[in-house]
Amino acid sequence: MGRYLFHRAWQSALTLVLATVVVFLGMRALPGDPALALAGEDRSPEALAAIRHHYGLDQPVWVQFGHFVANAVRGDFGSSIRTGVPVSSMLRSALPVTVELSALAILIAVVLGVGAGVLAAVRRGRPSEWLANGLALIGLSVPHFWLGLLAILYLSVGAGLFPASGFVPLSHPIDNLHHLILPALILGTGLAAVIMRQTRSAMLDSLSADYVRTARAKGLRPGTVVGRHALRNSLIVVITIVGLQLGGLISGAVVTEQIFGLPGFGKMTIDAVFQRDYPVIQAVVLITAASYIAINFVVDLLYSIVDPRIRVAGEAS
Amino acid sequence: MTAVVETPVVPVAVGPGRRARVLRRLRRNPLAMASLVVLVVAVLAAALAPWLAPYDPSQTDFSHTMSPPGTPGHVLGTDDLGRDVLSRIMYGARASLEVGVLAVLVALLVGVPLGLAGGYFRRADAVIGRLTDLLLAFPFLIMAVGLAAIRGASLGNAAIAIGVAQVPGVVRVVRSDTLRLKSLDFVAAAIVDGAGDAWVLARHVLPNATSAILVQATVAVPAAILGEAVLSFLGLGIQPPSPSLGTMLASAQQFAAKAPWAAVMPGLTIMLLALAFNVFGDALRDALDPKGNR
User: Which CA distances in Å does B211 have to A72, B33, B97, B217?
Assistant: First the structure.
């Protein structure tokens, strides 16, 4: 276990360093001279030199990279070019919205996906399997932002059931949920489709395994066999899928926030792109990559705790 | 990132007899045939849009704005500028398919060699593993955001962002198939026989990995089509006034209460396209599965 943990931690750290280098180099590849953009009216060579000196742009690349990393570690990502607000305080107000939206969406996705997956595997060849499979295929194929548009059009504006946009902080739990439930449903159904298909196939494998046959032969009730024996092993798959789908979830959250006017990480990202607010874009890209790496490291640890075979395989490779 | 990932298929070598069996299985699957028909019709409609579309997709007509579907001359109605929705959908589907195919080509061109190298050469494997971990850490939308900031938003950049984001999936499938094939007797025999690495990879490994690659490509296209729609909707992909299903939805958002069809039709088109690819991909995987009906 110790060796595996060390191995995975080292891999994750390496990936994080590489990601930081990519973001740093990407920002240097931006068109235009940053000093010119910062200079405004006074573009005399002396003024430009002063700006370069002030922002450390006259230092060697590796020194600049060191400053970039040191600042990022302290949570200092500079300030928005447009508003002058520190990026860190923008993040402090935006991140909780996105984290809550994603957590709700994951919850919905796991409940729907595991439920439908188990149903489809247990009721093989019956109409309910076809229905679950069909819904999963549609869930994989439907553009979710379009479902969001239709939901706003018909459920919010048309029927008045939900607010069409906006966000209420968690301190007002009922109002907060009322604003978030529709976006979370829209975001969660896409993930649910993926989870359902993986759960179904894992359940079909477990249900035909020897230990399930043994459990049945012992005379255990079908519910116990499915719940305690087959599903327990299949849940390992679900943990991995949630980790792997995290990238898709982040992309989905960006669009969902944009449609429902939620003031989260995604909306901040899109606004920054259109305003060419580079310090914000840089922070957003770096934080996404870092959280993806960190969460998947945790997922891997969970996975290896649940299933010792993975540990062995990881050490062998 | 993760140690163990499920691979969709582990098909055995495709010989002439097996190919016939795969085709027979596909022909007998009504869902596969239905999705194939949808795909052929969609590709034809998109490819022949300049000749088949009733109107120029950007031609405005301010005397017929927001006409409902069924209006004479406008089967699917018109939008807020009086542009014909059907014509715009045909051109939009053309752009969607273009991005879908371009993105998957990018993913295959980068991913197949990396997957072959990772599965075949132990030393390359660790480096390629870190590289795919790195790519996974940048979700396609974040990659598109970065690319749009550096190079501007366009169809090409959208396809690159989506394609690069799909590289890890291709690497995973090709690598695991290469690992499997490498351990088979006929490959070992070729190596003992003195065949070079390049020869073994090109002559023995790649041809036998094609069915896995094919299935991966079939499910990557609909993901790319959905990705293009998202990017264009957000303004990070195809730029208006060029017709794209995503930009159509973005503009329809403004007047959806008055002309819901302008918001419904492009979305349905995206769904139908993606669904046809996904259903066909499933059927293809089942047909290629040597274990039979699963």
Answer: 45, 19, 22, 10
* CA–CA gap between residue A215 and residue B73 (Å, rounded): 66
Closest CA of chain A from B122, distance in Å: 9
pLDDT digits (tens, 9 = 90+) for B255-284: 877 888 888 889 999 999 999 999 999 899
Quick one: which of B186, B270, B268, B189 has its CA closest to B227?
Answer: B270
Gap from A171 CA to chain B (nearest CA, Å): 30
CA distance A209 to chain B (A): 15
8 A C-beta contact, residue A180 and residue A100: yes
Tell me the chain A residues in contact with residue B133 when contact means C-beta distances shorter than 8 Å: 11, 15, 293
ipTM score for this prediction? 0.83
C-alpha to C-alpha distance for A283 and A74, rounded to whole angstroms? 12
Which of B139, B148, B235 faces A247 most closely, judged by CB atoms?
B139
**Half-sphere exposure (Cβ direction) of B101: Cα atoms closer than 13 Å:** 6
- Decide: B222 and B277 in contact? Cβ < 8 Å: yes
The closest CB to that of A153, out of B148, B229, B263, belongs to B263
* pLDDT value of position B209: 87
Distance CA B264, CA A150 (A): 8
CA angle A59, A64, A70 (to 5 degrees): 140
Stated pTM of the model = 0.86
- Report pLDDT digits (tens) over B55-105: 888 777 777 777 788 777 777 878 777 788 888 999 999 999 999 999 999
Q: Are A173 and A284 in contact (CB under 8 A)?
A: no
CB B213 within 8 A of CB B61: no
Rounded CA-CA distance B104/B110 in Å is 10
Question: What is the C-alpha to C-alpha distance for residues B232 and B161, in angstroms, rounded to an integer?
Answer: 13
Per the CB < 8 Å rule, is B4 touching A313?
yes
Query: How deeply is B176 buried, as exposed, middle or buried, from its count of CB atoms within 10 A (0-12, 13-18, 19+)?
Result: buried
Helix (H, G, I), strand (E, B) or coil at B291: coil
Distances in Å between the alpha carbon of B9 and those of A124, A170, B26, B113, B201?
Answer: 21, 45, 16, 19, 19
Calpha distance B13→B16 (Å, rounded) = 10
B3·A314 Cβ contact <8 A: yes
Amino acid at A230: A
Contacts of B89 in chain A (CB under 8 A): none
CA–CA distance, B147 with B72 (Å, rounded to integer): 43
Total residues found in chain A within this entry: 317
Within 8 A by CB and 6+ apart from B256, the residues are A149, A153, B262, B263
